[in-house]
Amino acid sequence: MNPPNIHVLPSVDAIAMEAADRIVKAAKESIELFDRFSLFLSGGSTPKPLYELLASDDYADAITWPKVEVFMVDERCVPPDHNDSNYKMIAEALLTKVSLPRDNIYRMKGEIEPNEAAKAYGLMLKEKFAEYGPDFMLLGMGSDGHTASLFPHSEAVKETHHRCVAHYVENSTTGKSWRVTLTAPFINSARDILVLTAGANKSKALQEVLEGPEDPDRLPLQLIKPVHGRMTYLVDIAAAGMGDAD
Ligand code: 6PG
């Protein structure tokens, strides 16, 4: 794989603008070439301003939303109207604000038995992506080096076969909780992977992820290496260890 591109930006708002421009560009290219664009979205706090920006007047018409299909990177196992639900955050910030047909939204079902939800999602992905890989994956990173819901030392980190798995996580960002998550092999089949990282609490893990040594069981983001695609990090100056972002 090519080494990832790393861009340091002054603030979370600057990350949102850069990410929005990259998503618009990737969507245009993909729709022109293939008449479709599959966009996989993460939860967490860092991408929320990006989702709001994509829904704003300046951007909403920049993407041909009826040609876009939106998928989840991971989900907390709660109902879709629960405040911890990634789907709820993404829907409120973006999906309900743009002209995206409801049928183009593929939600992980946090409200059903987690292994069933993961199995159903994995089978759906197997069918949908039988001929071509996913177009665009938006990821984040936790201060422990996790990405998606691939948490350090968890079973999900070792998964090499399934596209989507469920597991019970002792130390997740929402405490002890069940999670449904895409696996590294599926994420790595994407054409574009964009990782958003902001905040001084991420700088140590980010440095370790990027500069090694390789220890993906402890730093799951190290598992993310696109097979044929491109990987880019957008990092604010605080996460880059270069001082406080505004
Ligand atoms: C989730 C996410 C997760 C997130 C990181 C970073 O469900 O929590 O998908 O992988 O991207 O935890 O989260 P922040 O942006 O909130 O730091």
Q: What is the count of DSSP helices, taking H or I runs of 4+ residues? A: 6
Q: Which molecules are bound besides the chains?
A: 6-phosphogluconic acid
Low-confidence stretches: none
* Class derived from helix and strand content: alpha/beta
Number of strands: 10
Largest sheet: 7 strands, parallel
User: Can you give the helix content as a percent range?
Assistant: 25-40%
SSE pattern: EHEHEEHEHEEEHEHE
What is the strand arrangement across the widest sheet?
Answer: 1-10-9-6-2-3-5
> What portion of residues belong to β-strands?
15-25%
Rounded to an integer, what's the Rg over CA atoms? 17 Å
The end-to-end span amounts to 34 Å
Question: Which helices and strands, and how do they pair?
Answer:
Elements: E1 5-9, H1 12-34, E2 37-41, H2 48-55, E3 68-72, E4 74-76, H3 86-95, E5 105-106, H4 114-128, E6 136-140, E7 164-172, E8 175-182, H5 184-187, E9 192-197, H6 203-211, E10 230-236
Parallel strand pairs: 1-10, 2-3, 2-6, 3-5, 6-9, 9-10
Antiparallel strand pairs: 4-8, 7-8
The protein binds 6-phosphogluconic acid.
Brief write-up:
This protein is of the alpha/beta class and 246 residues long. It has helices at residues 12-34, 48-55, 86-95, 114-128, 184-187, 203-211, and strands at residues 5-9, 37-41, 68-72, 74-76, 105-106, 136-140, 164-172, 175-182, 192-197, 230-236. The chain binds 6-phosphogluconic acid.
